[in-house]
Design goal:
Rossmann fold, 7-stranded parallel beta sheet, 7 strands, SDR family oxidoreductase, oxidoreductase, NAD(P)-bd_dom_sf, SDR_fam
């Protein structure tokens, strides 16, 4: 029996890269997509890197063709590609709004649609959603669209025993913050607001994804696993 195969979108940095490294270390065959330079990703050499923009349906088709050729089928699809455009409604322009929905919602939807023929019975699909409220109205709306989508797909794909779940990271120290101009000092200061006293690492999310993909989570579908160090716990019923 061949090793399980995983396709990770947005897998060249941050949470996606950490998940690729963890799954690879546990014997998975792994392919990642991303818009970054594959040579600079620093992933193990037998992890395949495919350049693909989540907004582009031809790019998604290309990635699926590569996955079909390399693996034949998939056991895990980790829909992790996403962008952040935090900000209040007054400062959100149409380009930012469209990017949020084109990558976080449309891209994930069509990636899963095109991956369906490759998904084995009993495969796992995991969305990255996000635990953060107060990150901007358009950002919250785009991320919020994914949870009902995930639950609906969990019901739709249950007859094929494909489990569909989400992982919602809290404050995780990833390169995305640097791109937004957030300093390391600022990130470190956020630890004061976290009940467990530290900002999360990409590896914290990778462990959650690996669990959801594993047989240990074989009776879990349609659920959202929040990995936030306790942020938001007090505000939930």
């Amino acid at each position: 029996m061949s090793a399980p195969a995983a396709l990770i979108t947005g897998g060249t940095s941050g949470i996606g890269k950490a998940t690729a490294e963890l799954l690879h270390s546990r014997g998975y065959r792994v392919m990642v997509t991303g818009v970054g330079n594959a040579a600079n990703a620093g992933l193990p050499e037998d992890v395949a890197v495919v350049r693909a923009d989540a907004r582009s349906l031809p790019d998604i088709d290309h990635a699926m063709d590569r996955a079909r050729t390399r693996f034949g089928s998939l056991d895990l699809l980790f829909l992790n590609a996403g962008v952040s455009r935090p900000g209040p409604i007054e400062s959100t322009d149409e380009d930012a709004f469209d990017a949020l929905f084109d990558i976080n919602v449309k891209g994930n939807f069509f990636t899963l649609q095109k991956a369906l023929p490759l998904l084995n019975e009993g495969a796992s699909v995991v969305f990255t959603v996000g635990a953060g409220e107060g990150i901007g109205s358009a950002m919250t709306a785009a991320k919020g669209a994914l949870l009902p989508l995930m639950r609906s797909l969990a019901l739709e794909l249950a007859p094929r025993r494909i489990r569909v779940n989400a992982v919602s990271p809290g404050m995780i120290d990833t390169p995305a913050y640097g791109k937004l101009g957030v300093s390391q000092e600022m990130i470190d200061s956020w630890a004061r607001d976290v009940p467990l006293g530290r900002v999360g690492a990409p590896a914290d999310i990778a462990e959650a994804v690996a669990f959801l993909a594993s047989d240990a989570a074989g009776y879990i579908t349609g659920d959202n696993l929040t990995v936030s160090g306790g942020i938001g716990v007090h505000s939930r019923p």
